[in-house]
């Protein structure tokens, strides 16, 4: 589990993994040009509880006004929601009743977000990124290539990753980049409607 960084802002956005951290850094800067927030990588999905508890040890923690958590839905969004709520409960911070809404007590406002969005029963950050470029005609070629690979006997257990990296590999400016660095290079359309729930939460931090 990554050690929490020193807190330098009153608004914290906690992301599951380095790719999600960098994606949210660049998306948040697009949605909220004033950089009055801090994005941190809390590690894997089983590490959130301890990360939140360690965060409270920072000497500046009492100055924090907002905490937002973001993670993948994986194969079961409901289980992901339950997991986040349980982590927040154990860390003794306010627990929102559902994703993409704020709750607060006298000193702290909290929310959590699930990739790829509120209406999806499963999915990941990769799925959200691909939604933002859904009108790109290259995706037809990517789908055809992956179907061909399957027909030739290739196993693609992480189809979301295969599709995303195949898409990036065919773009001369993004070939070989992980999600986070591709986000910095504006590979994704941050104005796409699929990002509206995330934009609202980030703007209201």
Strand arrangement, largest sheet?
2-1-3-5-4
* Mean of all residue-level pLDDT scores: 95
Rounded Rg:
18 Å
N to C succession of SSEs? EHEHEHEEHHHHH
Counted by DSSP, the helix tally is 8
Shape designation: globular
Structural class: alpha/beta
End-to-end Cα distance? 25 Å
Report the CATH architecture of the largest domain.
3-Layer(aba) Sandwich
Biggest sheet record: 5 strands, mixed
* Fraction of residues in H or I helices: 40-55%
- Counted up, domains total 2
Any idea of the CATH class of the largest domain?
Alpha Beta
> What is the CATH third-level topology name of the largest domain?
Rossmann fold
- Runs in which pLDDT lies below 50 for 5 or more consecutive residues are none
Textual characterization of the structure:
The chain is of the alpha/beta class and 205 residues long. The protein folds into two domains: 11-122 and 190-203, Rossmann fold (3-Layer(aba) Sandwich); 125-184, no CATH class. Helix content is 40%, strand content 12%. The protein has helices spanning 18-31, 48-55, 77-90, 125-132, 138-151, 159-169, 179-184, 196-203; strands at 11-15, 38-41, 66-72, 103-104, 109-115. The protein has a five-stranded mixed sheet, with helices on both faces. Helix 2 (48-55) packs parallel to helix 3 (77-90), helix 4 crosses helix 6 (159-169) and helix 5 (138-151) crosses helix 6. It is globular.
Write the layout of secondary structure elements.
Layout: E1 11-15, H1 18-31, E2 38-41, H2 48-55, E3 66-72, H3 77-90, E4 103-104, E5 109-115, H4 125-132, H5 138-151, H6 159-169, H7 179-184, H8 196-203
């Amino acid at each position: 589990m990554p050690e929490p960084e020193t807190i330098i802002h009153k608004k914290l956005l906690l992301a599951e993994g380095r790719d999600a951290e960098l994606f949210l850094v660049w998306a948040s800067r697009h949605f909220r040009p004033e950089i009055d927030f801090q994005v941190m990588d809390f590690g894997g999905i089983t590490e959130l509880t301890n990360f939140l508890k360690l965060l409270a040890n920072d000497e500046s923690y009492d100055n924090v006004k907002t905490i937002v958590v973001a993670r993948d839905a994986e194969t079961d969004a409901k289980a992901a929601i339950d997991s986040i709520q349980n982590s927040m409960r154990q860390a003794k911070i306010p627990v929102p009743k559902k994703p993409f809404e704020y709750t607060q007590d006298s000193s702290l406002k909290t929310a959590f977000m699930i990739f790829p969005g509120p209406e999806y029963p499963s999915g990941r950050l990769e799925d959200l990124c691909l939604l933002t470029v859904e009108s790109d005609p290259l995706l037809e070629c990517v789908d055809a290539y992956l179907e061909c690979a399957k027909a030739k006997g290739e196993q693609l257990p992480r189809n979301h990753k295969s599709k995303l990296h195949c898409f990036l590999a065919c773009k001369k400016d993004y070939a070989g980049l992980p999600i986070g660095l591709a986000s910095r290079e504006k590979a994704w359309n941050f104005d796409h409607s699929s990002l509206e729930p995330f934009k609202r939460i980030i703007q209201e931090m």
